[in-house]
Inverse folding.
């Protein structure tokens, strides 16, 4: 799994509460991504990072923020969780080298339920 | 805008028979195409990619994919299906934005291989 861990793996939270999901990688990759997976939608990009403190929005960024203060950690925050944010969240890293260029490798996922 | 389509929500195959999971793409410029597999309760795993070169790309677990420029297709194939191939399969295309390029995923095709 390219040394990617996600925490927590499961979380149940109430509407309106803040939630932070953590992605940790051990291989010093420059590129990191947060996706959400929902039935009928496949994977959709929330935010991505191309270096420490360098982040940008993806397709479905409303209601989410991210931070990357260290190469190894990429945090996803739901400032005020809503039921529409119930989903499975995946973190991924991207290889920048020529041999594995453009490939992404995924963590095990976090299942978030907002009640 | 770049996009991929997976026209089949589900594909059913008998064990030992050849399998095909379809993907069509729409891109401006050269397409960079990918296949991923997701087993239950797991993250996505990289199978193979096409960037340039031979139209037939070989990947992990005996899978291969055929790039067809005239039909804008990138179908995933395997000569002899196994029950253990049952999973969710995603086609993806590189977005092209930025130096790394994000991936845009299809909605996924569920492959069911029966004994």
């Amino acid at each position: 799994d390219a040394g990617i861990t996600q925490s927590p793996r499961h979380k149940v939270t109430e509407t309106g509460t803040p939630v932070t999901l953590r992605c940790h990688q051990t291989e010093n990759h420059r590129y990191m991504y947060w996706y959400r997976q929902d039935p009928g939608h496949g994977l959709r990009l929330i935010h991505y990072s191309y270096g420490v403190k360098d982040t940008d929005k993806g397709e479905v960024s409303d209601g989410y923020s991210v931070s990357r203060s260290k190469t190894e950690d990429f945090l996803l925050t739901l400032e005020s969780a809503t039921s529409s944010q119930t989903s499975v969240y995946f973190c991924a890293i991207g290889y920048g080298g020529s041999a594995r260029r453009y490939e992404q490798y995924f963590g095990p996922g976090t299942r978030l339920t907002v009640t | 805008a770049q996009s991929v389509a997976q026209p089949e929500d589900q594909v059913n195959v008998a064990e030992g028979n050849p399998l095909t999971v379809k993907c069509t793409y729409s891109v401006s410029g050269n397409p960079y195409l990918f296949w991923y597999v997701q087993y239950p309760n797991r993250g996505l795993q990289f199978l193979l990619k096409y960037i340039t070169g031979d139209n037939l790309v070989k990947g992990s677990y005996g899978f291969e994919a055929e790039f067809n420029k005239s039909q804008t297709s990138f179908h995933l194939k395997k000569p002899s299906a196994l029950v253990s191939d049952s999973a969710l399969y995603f086609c993806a295309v590189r977005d092209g934005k930025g130096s790394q390029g994000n991936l845009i995923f299809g909605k996924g095709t569920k492959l069911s291989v029966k004994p």
Q: What stands out?
A: Chain A touches chain B through 28 residues (CB under 8 Å).
